[in-house]
Please model this.
Amino acid sequence: MISVQGGASLAKSLFPVVGAPGVTALRLGLGTVILVVIFKPWRLRFSREQRLPLLIYGLALGAMNYLFYLSIRTIPLGIAVALEFTGPLSLALFGVRRFVDILWVILALSGLWFLLPLGQDLSRIDVKGAALAVSAGASWAVYILAGQRAGTEHGPATVAMGSVIASIVFVPVGLTFAASGIWSWSPLPVALVVALLSSALPYSLEMLALTRLPARTFGTLMSLEPAMAAVSGMLFLGEVLTLIQWLALLAIIFASTGATLTMRTRSLPQQS
Model:
């Protein structure tokens, strides 16, 4: 999460030069090259049962990137990630079985309510940007579920193949709608760092986690992401949240911590 949000802040600084679609193309394209060199996905063999989840995983990965970068053009990074988090939060909500689990989900939902803030003054929040962030959250939920099934056998190496699928679709789309600055050499060094921080490193670590944790647990742990994003936006982009929004972020963090501490011990999925 630290790597992703640091990369997101750096990526947003490239928006004036290459545009949000251009950043998506550079991040996915360069990130894919790095992952392919490391994991050599052409050596992998996927069973018939894994191919459809792998395809869905790759498309969800690309859509999640593209929609998220479009959203942070007009809304602060912390709020965008909080809205995007509705995807993993939905997984946590659907997986509740005990009363204490319900309490943690309610606390996380309350934090999101006041973070926006919903039902209050929405004039400070771009509706289109918010909708794009929620759509990225839906892609994130699909990414989690499909990633669990696709990565069972090959673990983090699956990310390379998923990234190839995402790049085939979304790199051409990003280049089509990118700003003219994308065709110069100057953005490439920063874009390479963004690819490392936002794609190659975190997706490999996430795949390791996805194959070892239940989807509900993974989704709840990811509730720390809005806080990471808000701090990153404040440090690197000068974005400031209100006191109520910071308290809301703390509520989400407490929900994540509480859910983790009270989680029942479960056997880990066996590697096939």
